[in-house]
Amino acid sequence: MGIRTSVNHPASSRANLRLVRLGVDVPLLLTLFTLIVFGLLILYSASWDFSRAITENKDPNYIFNRQLLWLLLGLSGAIVCMFINYRWWEKLALPAMAVTILTLIVVLAISEVRLGAARSISGGSYQPSELAKLITVIYLSVWLFAKRDYINQLGFGLIPMGLILGIVGGLIYAQPDVSAVLTVVVLGALMFFLAGGDLRQILIVVVVTLMVGWFVVMANDTGRARVASYWVGVQDPTAAPYHVQRSLEAFVKGGWFGAGIGKADTKHTGLPVPPTDSIFAVIGEETGVIGSFFTLGLYTLLLWRGMEIARRAPDLLGALLAGGLSLWVAMEAYINMAVILGLIPFAGNALPFVSSGGSSLVSSLIAMGIVMNVSRVSEREAREANTRTSDVIDFQKRRDDRPPRWAASKPASKPVGEFKDKQIKSPMAKRDPKARRIKRAGKN
Question: How far apart are CA 295 and CA 340, in angstroms?
């Protein structure tokens, strides 16, 4: 992406050129920056009353301050991942997956129950299931890249991948976290598709994913209750779950342009957990339909840039990492927004970069750091290839412009006329009558 220097704005042009030299995808970076700033603004508006309630009126900035700390940690991780060549994940994927499985086992061993589920450790500040989604995408990218010549063989492709997803999904399901299990399974199917799996096997993956998803939901009391309440709400919106009713109420109050940042009242009158699951309802009430579509557009732009980076990746590993991680972040956002609008059964997916929660924020930022690195490596290798091509062309041009070696060593031939004059003036020519006649004819 070339950006020319401007005489009128030299400082901004120099900054843009530095970004270009780094190989950073500028639209993706601007989208991410907008989501983070907008998310902090909405989170502060949605969390101050909730913070007072959970701290007994001691600290209205409690949730916001914690989010800032997690943001600094996540940005640090994203910057590190942006400058580490993504091919290093071929060595790091297996240890990372082992650590992830270990933390999921620790969650079950500690059994720290909060809101009816054991999903977190360290006082609820860390949820390993969020990290498991990130590591699953990374591990599957590396695994599918290594098995790219065999993925269309049932014994080397689909079945081993099903075992990998089964182990991770089973440990998450035991917490229980049904939505995270379904997210992991759907991500596996999407990754298999991106890796170029056979159409028949892709259809098998889709069918198996739907069957497993339905079985997981129906085998869980919470899942059955959510599906039943969702179906009742589809038939009669007035009988929808309380969470959906209050969320729709917030959107109705917001109208087209919203009540204004900080001026919503549904978050104070019973909207469930406005800083986390219901934060999109706060966006709808405070910024209206326009702000809601703006938020949707940001995630769509993020997905588009991620898939474009995947398309330009120098190898399949880079394409799988960029495409899989972008799909994961966008899918989390779409599911959260669809739940709040009552379009799908309730799920516990966070709104990336906006919802309160350190695990989600750090994991999402690290994912974007890896996507940025794929962009950097692609740009760098493209520049190196262009430089090598230019050097070859210049060398060939210089070689073509040089005179041949035989021309430099052979004396230059003399003009024909000059040779004839010398013949005429030579002593032998003077004794030749024919030559004398030619000479007299020339004088006449």
Answer: 14
